[in-house]
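To fix ideas, we now present one chain and its tokenised fold:
***
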Amino acid sequence: MNLNYRVIIGFILCFTGIHLSAQTTVAQKIDSIGIFIGQQAHITIEVTTHQGAKIQFPALKPLNYIVPGVELLEVSEADTSSLDNNQIKVSKCYTITSFDEKLYAIPGLKVKIDGKEFAGNTLAFKVVTMDVDTLHLNQFFPAKDVQDNPFSWKEWSPIFWMSIVILILCLFAFYLFLRLRDHKPIVTKIRIIKKVLPHQKALQAIDNIKAEKLTTSTNQKIYYTQLTDTLREYINERFGFNAMEMTSSEIIYQLKAKGDQKMIDELKNLFETADLVKFAKYETMINENDMNLVNAIHFIDETKLEGLPTEEKIVPKLDEKDKRIQKNRITIKSLLWTIAIIVTLIMIYIIYYTYKLLS
């Protein structure tokens, strides 16, 4: 009875291809022991061992032979799973085929675990051919040509209609482009010009009077005309009332509320002297001319405004027609960009859809 028990145990171990050694097992299995010529079978090697073990499977490469006549087609990646008691199972699959009718004995493939070599059991692998009836030759037919799939309008209609949409959008975009080209863009340039401050302009004019030496000229009417005109322009720009069209008394009256009395008195004397020279042929002394020139400079220095901007930005104003044209151009450009994006997205979808149909 004990002998029979041992025989049964040995038979089971040989059949399953399990090798036991210190809680390490190597099992070698095949999913089909018989195939037709050219079919495929799969050999699986399962290693059960402790975690952290160094496992080295057989170094087999595709298109090589495991045994003469049995060709290796593919080697899968190792698949690892955890077990109880700090154990792991690592399996690897080998895809094989054969084109010779024969019964093959596939020896156990060797696996190294922590430097020690293990092997599974020998497997039986039979390759058979298909029976051919050589008596009824009329039942043999030649190989069929590659069959073309029938055209299906349902499959290709989305591409057709989307192509029509792209054509319409392109024609509309071309029309918008012609509209955009025919209407020249409205160019508005902002000019920045140097601004001469009122007191700078007035002092420059007085420097010109001195350079021309009009204070010592015999024609005092020209001197006082230029001096008072310079003051009138300065007052016009500085105080904001039209001094060029006012009499001397009107100017003094307007200035009384804006300066001290001494300054106004000096300016009043200058204007009165100028009126006498221009209208009453009054002749002044040279020192009197110099004094009036100094009073004019003093008035400008006392009333000038500091810290004003020296540059002026001139922004051209568009009329209603130009504004309408500019708005239309912005709208057309926005439509062109929108059409371009839509056409691009549709083209990408058509390419992807066609690829899926043909693959």
